[in-house]
Amino acid sequence: MAIIINLDVVMAKRKMRSNELARMVGITEQNLSVLKTGKARALRLGTLDALCRTCAAGPAISWNTGGKKTMSNVRVYSVPVPADGLMVGRFSEVHYGDAYAADLPGGCVVTAEQAARAFFMSVPRWVHGLLAVRNLPAKLLGLKTGEGHTMEDMANAPCVSGQAFGFFTVVDRTEEEILMGEEDRHLDFLFSVMVRALPGKAAPSVIMATAVRFNNLLGRLYFIPVKPFHRIIVRAMLKNTVSCLMERGP
Hints:
Layout: E1 2-5, H1 7-14, H2 18-25, H3 29-36, H4 45-54, E2 61-64, E3 76-78, E4 96-103, H5 112-120, H6 125-140, H7 151-156, E5 164-165, E6 168-174, E7 177-183, E8 187-196, E9 205-214, H8 217-248
Antiparallel strand pairs: 1-2, 3-4, 4-9, 5-6, 6-7, 7-8, 8-9
Helix pairs in contact: 2-3, 5-8, 6-8
């Protein structure tokens, strides 16, 4: 039997930020982060009581008896970029592209917008550190960094074609796909969040695909050190996203 921490899901439902919940419960944001990731080795009864009282919108903590997937056994794997996805044909040339998928359990009904919002609410703490490092050369090159927007801001923004979604812009959308992107002086990118059944699978999967087009040499040079971190970050956040969606239920 495993204890499952559902704080990300409850916080998203209540539109609550980490610093706000930490203050209300009486713990530090660092300890709250450890608790959210399920890595806490112990929990004081007073803290547990405060969490249960504060998170009345849903169960902050639940139990898994072996019948449901948990984050530890969510498998992320590489897939071809879907040939009928919204990003296909948007760029005359694609200089870098990738796509990763993670399967949802049977009976889990999720829209692409829900998956996109869960993505922005599922950022591991170490990813914030990597993004801060990434922003240093981005500023020097005049690229947009997204600073000034919290992940919670992005998760709560309206997801409407042609409008900003955090520091992304929603390029196009359907019920099963949200296509976001941004154009910069040195490179342009597209990022897609899809929910669909892959060939040979009965249950749907969450698919995240990226396409990058370089506009000049500086864009190419910038992306060389960014590329390996991009792959690590997307895989980690996809895993967290699917775990968050599974915990919210059908």
